[in-house]
Amino acid sequence: MQMNKIQHPDLPIADSRFHILVGPKNWNRLPATIRQRFGKRVRGGDSVTYQGIVSAMQMNWAGRVFAQAARLIGAPLPYDLSSVGRPAVVIVTEDIAGDGQFWVRQYGRQSGFPQVVHSSKRFAGPTGLEEYIGYGIGMALKVEASETALLFKSDHYFLSILGRRVRLPKHLSPGALVVGHHDLADGKFRFSLSLKSKLFGQLIHQDAIFEDSK
After folding, report:
1. What is the DSSP code (8-state) at residue 214?
2. Is 22 helix (H, G, I), strand (E, B) or coil?
3. Most Cβ neighbours (<10 Å): which of 63, 80, 97, 183?
4. Chain segment 129-170, per-residue pLDDT in tens
5. Structural domain range at position 184
6. Which residues contact residue 1 at a Cβ distance below 8 angstroms, ignoring those fewer than 6 apart?
7. How high is the pLDDT of residue 163?
């Protein structure tokens, strides 16, 4: 007698999207815990939450100006140095309508409301992965793997205008952005964000330590 497989709608599903982006050889270089985090997905509309703390943040004067100016388009970059030592929360929600993820990052501040960053990752475009921050602004990402981290590096920036994609020239881009997911063992990982400019140097660097969701 054939038995029907019991479905568990709340359990994660195997996800090969990041595996495909980096390739089998590089994927297998990653720590097992990173492969587990990025090798599963929740069902459409469901979310995974990671809680942690901002452990470090630096900005030079140009980074401060740029981060404050970026608040006009939704504050996609950390801008408040008082967030160090404050709680941080990341929520990843599977896009129920398309092949992508919605990311919400919340950083506590010394006073006032926490900073909340919204973005959407889509498995599309010339590099296979794009991140949208709203206002028609997007960034193509290259994904790289090492023995300790999974890195997301900006390839180029673009605007979506009336259904058309317009690539920004390098001299109009904010700089080279690298976001890292670094394994720390014991169910913890470090999220790093670095924005560098050839003209102004290291604009912004932020580290936050998170724990796996229970």
Report:
1. -
2. helix
3. 63
4. 999 998 999 999 999 999 999 999 999 999 988 888 899 998
5. 13-211
6. none
7. 81
Per-residue model confidence as pLDDT tens digits over 187-210: 999 999 999 999 999 999 999 999
Evaluate whether residue 1 is within a structural domain.
no
Burial label for 99, CB within 10 Å (0-12, 13-18, 19+), is exposed
Q: How many residues does the chain have?
A: 214
Domain with residue 198: its CATH number is: 2.40.128
> What b/e string do you get for 25-43 counting C-beta neighbours within 10 Å, with b at 16 or more?
eebeebbebbbebbbebbe
Q: Give domain status of residue 17, yes or no.
A: yes
What is the rounded distance in angstroms from the CA atom of residue 24 to the CA atom of residue 19? 7
What is the tally of structural domains in the chain?
A: 1
How do residues 90-106 score in pLDDT, each as one tens digit? 999 999 877 899 999 99
Q: Could you give the CA distance from residue 203 to residue 63 in angstroms, rounded to a whole number? A: 4
pTM of the complete model beyond 0.85: yes
- 80: its two tokens: 């408040």
C-alpha distances out from residue 163 to 93, 136, 159, 160, 166, Å = 25, 10, 10, 6, 10
pLDDT at 80 over 80: yes
Report yes or no: 19 and 41 within 8 Å, Cβ to Cβ: no
Residue 3 lies in a domain: no
